[in-house]
Fold:
Amino acid sequence: MKPVLALVGRPNVGKSTLFNRLTKSRDAIVADFAGLTRDRHYGNAKQGRQEFIVIDTGGFEPDASAGIYKEMAKQTQQAVAEADIVVFVVDARGGLSAQDHDIAKYLRKIGKPTLLVANKAEGMLEGIQLTEFYELGLGEVIAISAAHGQGTRGLVELAFESLHLPEDPEETDDDPSVIKLAVAGRPNVGKSTLINTWLGEERLVAFDMPGTTRDAISVPFEKQGQKFELIDTAGLRRKGKVFEAIEKFSVVKTLQAIESANVVLLLLDAEQGVTDQDAHIAGYALESGRAMVLAVNKWDSVDEYQRQLVQRSIETRLPFLSFANMHFISAKKRQGLGPVWASIVQAHKAAMCKMSTPILTRLLLEAVQFQSPQRGGMFRPKLRYAHQGGMNPPVIVVHGNSLEHVTDTYKRFLEGRFRKAFNLAGTPLRIEMKTSTNPFADKDAS
Structure:
């Protein structure tokens, strides 16, 4: 599992700038305005061979009792609960504040591994100007500049050292005959109810309250001779545990479950349609290259008008999942579940499909003969041959000349031809273009 770093601190100390630096993205909105980030934000990051998840949070006021600041505090508390290590960001130029003391008190009480980071420290003398932050009682102060990238690499290395991560994580030998299926979706969409229906027993605790449980668990299951490992991303509620005040839906557990799965069943709610959270989960699964099946739950509880609205919202908000089979079900009434299994098996088969080079090349040349790529500049791209570059998801590598001019539209045209020929329903398909280099180019130049 990828380790998780949560960035916390009062507003406008540079958490979002640090998030963007670590994830090498511009996903978090950055501006010189306090309290800009309100919800927690997730991103993938990588340093060396180690991949990890970063959570950006809003300004933290642990004692906030009302309004938006209370909601922001709940979001940050959830991020801290999900994290393996907390990065507490303070403002080296603004100095220590009473709010910093409140946050430090909360973090000491929680007992989560914490690194104290003084941001905006470019050009400052660490020994003199950062001494006041030792009052927080969180150990060594790490001076960085997120905007300039100073000290961020060392920060991540210290985080990994404190987590005692193995240098070369051992790869487990998974049984290829077992399909790992992650059931993903937002809270209260019916994930645990669906798995209970499949298993025919109350193996998972289903409760009519969003985010009943938090840890992702796996359950072995066999149907018609096919072995599955069902991963319920909502998790298992342990008896005797009272509900926490913070939201119990763990985005991190969902992301980690998607990473470890072969197929993702994205469960939508017919009563509420497609939400931003649904789109984010779907986008992450697509980015991870996972085979996917869509299932719209509670289909029996909506009228024809609402059904049309749901189908339209799926078409407009999830157009990038057009390759995935879609089913309309009722987990509680056991309606429409049979075809879902067929689509799951089909999606896994497509993701693990083996495609021979001669057949791929023949399909490529037939596609070019049917429709040639557009000319780019002085030259028209020339596609010569294709071979498979990977599985889960399938990757097709096309070789030729001037392929940098091949348009996205033409790539989609090729994708459609390959999908139809190999019946690749349910899996993303990636097409990579590799332009051949002229071995005599340097000699001609000389």
Remarks:
- The chain is about 35% helix and 20% strand.
